Amino acid sequence: MTSVTLVNGGLTDQISVYDRGLAYGDGVFETILSVDGQLIFLDQHLKRLTRSLSQLKISPFDVEALLPLIQPYLKSTGQQIIKIIVTRGIGERGYAPPETIQAHSIVFISDKVKTTVAWATKGIKAQICATRLAYQPKLAGIKHLNRLEQILALQELAGTDCQEGIMLGYEGEVIEATMHNLFLVKNGELFTPDLSECGVAGIMRTFITEYAQQQGIPVSVSRVEVAQLMEADEIFLTNSINGIWPICELGNTRLEIGEVTCLLQDKVVDIVNSHD
Amino acid sequence: MTSVTLVNGGLTDQISVYDRGLAYGDGVFETILSVDGQLIFLDQHLKRLTRSLSQLKISPFDVEALLPLIQPYLKSTGQQIIKIIVTRGIGERGYAPPETIQAHSIVFISDKVKTTVAWATKGIKAQICATRLAYQPKLAGIKHLNRLEQILALQELAGTDCQEGIMLGYEGEVIEATMHNLFLVKNGELFTPDLSECGVAGIMRTFITEYAQQQGIPVSVSRVEVAQLMEADEIFLTNSINGIWPICELGNTRLEIGEVTCLLQDKVVDIVNSHD
Hints:
Two copies of one chain form a homodimer. The first copy, chain A, has 276 residues and is an alpha+beta fold. Helices cover 25% and strands 30% of the residues of chain A. Chain A folds into two domains: 3-112, Aminotransferase class 4, branched-chain amino acid transferase, N-terminal domain (D-amino Acid Aminotransferase, Chain A, domain 1, 2-Layer Sandwich), CATH 3.30.470; 118-274, D-amino Acid Aminotransferase, subunit A, domain 2 (D-amino Acid Aminotransferase, Chain A, domain 2), CATH 3.20.10.10. Chain A is built from eight helices and 16 strands. Chains A and B meet through β3, α1, β6, β7 and α5 of A and β3, α1, β6, β7 and α5 of B. β3 of chain A pairs antiparallel with β3 (14-16) of chain B.
């Protein structure tokens, strides 16, 4: 079995056309890596899911109840990707939700494709996208289903040999990549953009930030300008599935996979191997 | 029959969980009024649908082919609402669409509920929402499926007796209401906000703008400040389903349903009655 979908716990690949996830992108999602049947950073994912649902005022939803649904489909060897969508539920036409509404869960379980693993060791090519991220502090940080900006940005990469696109905020500062958070290293210090106006606050981003600080690497979470990015010693991207992808080409600029990147990558590999 | 749903022309109320409309809000929609079996402003809706699909680079989709699907369910007397969603289609996990993908259509046909008709004659209460519209010129104007901002704004009205909420842009200027465009009248002139950074360019908004100009009423499409709104002689909201809703209370400010609003309402009623 390579792919399973569950809707509210039942094995099916169909949902109601009245689901507000379809109508308005009215929901959130999480993407979790499973290694040999262990869900990596599970607590952090469930906490962010709860926080995201609360930020959108989606009705109480027991995130813990997802686990027994997923468990039977986890493989004791190999890597899988568990994507969980939670929508506000079924509604009639109109943005205002009905007074009583029950959130819906959709779970996708699939094998992790091995072709992307090489990017962690080889590094990737990236370019800066023209599509920028709008400032919406009420949605910033959460992994909601309104993702047209990322789609427009990725369309810009068609016909290039880039694996990722870097997205700027409305004013032109660096925010993140379409599917990853972004870090840069300069003179042994780590910098990652502030996400209070836009962007997704990744689980791996938080982990890397905390772990680097524990290792005595200064970390600055602040506004990052394009000029800083272009003068960085190292740049890397992070997410829960890919871990760390170093950038080895950004436009015409070549970059080395440096010491700080390697140190952090070693830790991420450790975590995956020890199923922490 | 009060409600019918069609997915790619087939009678069903289920869609695939892999539809990118659900995953990312990757699609657009139109809401068309049918009166005695005639689709009002049909050409304008189909043109906007085509333009919106093209803006998102959704694969060629024959909007005209929707009509024979809808036709059998139109009633020869009474008003119906036809909502059409077109999504990019089915995709695997990941923001980047597959190379070959076929757009999906979902059509909802339902009777128009009479309870909202009174608001056109009585006028409505509105308030200004705290949730603002982010600036995203690449999505401005089109009726896409990323609608969390409108949902957050409408949640603010819970527990109030307001029928609509007015949304400001990121910098605090007036843009539109959650489900309607906005016009104000001052000294016989009509003003409606510029939508180049955010907002939905409504079919009724375009019609009202053009018709008012034909009637010799000066129309300004430009930045509108909250102070201008609070000092307006008349304010009204427009959309394809409700026509014109005058605002008679905005926060603590009471407003009359004035001459210009009535003149324009008469024309909209004419159009609906003559099935133009």
